[in-house]
Amino acid sequence: MTVPSPCINVCVMDKASGLCQGCLRTLDEITAWGRASDPQRLAILDAVAARRALQSNDSNARSPQ
């Protein structure tokens, strides 16, 4: 199995968070992706999913009701 990259070609690093605004990976995760094993890639995707959930929760908390 080959784990596909989460890259969506919106490659802009957010200085405050250190995350890519497109895929929510760190620079270290992005550079490691090409040589990472499938289990390592899945761990990165798990971290991305957790960041996305936090980002979603933060957005919902700030949205006016």
TrEMBL record:
Record's superkingdom? Bacteria
This protein's species is: Oryzomicrobium terrae
What protein is this chain from? Fe-S protein
Q: Which Pfam families match?
A: DUF1289 (PF06945)
Q: InterPro entries annotated for this entry? A: DUF1289
